[in-house]
Each structure stands twice: as C-alpha cells, then as structure tokens.
Write a structure and sequence with these properties.
It is a single chain. It contains two helices and five strands, in the order βαββββα. The protein has 136 residues and is α+β, with helices and mostly antiparallel strands. The protein has one domain. It is globular. The structure holds zinc ion (2 copies).
Amino acid sequence: MTPGQGAGPARAPRMTDRPLTCAVPTLLPLTLVSAALSMARTPDSVTETVYCDRAAHQAGLHYGLIAEADATHAVWALWEPRGTPHLRVLPDCPEISPDRMDGCSLYARHRGAHTWQAHDPEDGPAGSKVAALPTR
Ligand SMILES: [Zn+2]
Ligand SMILES: [Zn+2]
C-alpha cells in the first residue's frame, strides 16, 4: 500500500500546524453501554461519555472510540451533531507515523488527520492517548 494514499489531504501537515481533535462529547444510553461492554475486549475502558476522536471537522458524523473489539477492530460510537449515538465495529486505521513510534487510533479510511498528527486540546502534546493503548 502506498503511504499517504486515500484519506487525508495530499499535502503533508507541518509539525507547527497540527489540527485539533474534534473532542465533541456524547452520552451513551445505558442500552448502548451494555451492548458495548459485550463487544469490548477491554470492558473497563467502556464509559458513558464518549468524545469524538476525529481531527476537528466541519461536516459529517462524530466518531468516538469506546473500546478495542479485537486486535484489529474497535467499537465506535457514531453520532450526528446533536443526534443519538449508535455503535459500529470498525477496522483500525493501518497507518503509522513516519518515525514508526505511533499508530493511528482512528478507524480505517477515516477522513482528516491521523491521531499522531493531531493535538488533543486537553492532553497538550499529541501521543499520550496513543501511548496508553496496549501494544500488539
Ligand atoms: Zn467530531
Ligand atoms: Zn489514521
């Protein structure tokens, strides 16, 4: 597979101009929390409040990572702005950073920046969230 193919802008983002993470929150209904618990490989990471993990975006659904489902898939909450969330199991984004230190924690074929390109506004420097994921 050719690096840079598919998702994202063609031009390489500059290190000083990283996009922000969307981070819009939603609250999962209890029925979805229990459904997510049954799908998750790591049930203790399932929480009621989910934040959009996409790079800041103007249009389209919000996607919040809930938990890993297996080694190559994760359980996501998808929701319209101000809409009701629903669950999807999506394959992981296969891209890794150029220095091979970080994997992308978004889903395959997402639009916008990979997580190792984006700042989380609450985390400061990028990477702490990715570093918290179990290694494969
Ligand atoms: Zn969003
Ligand atoms: Zn990615």
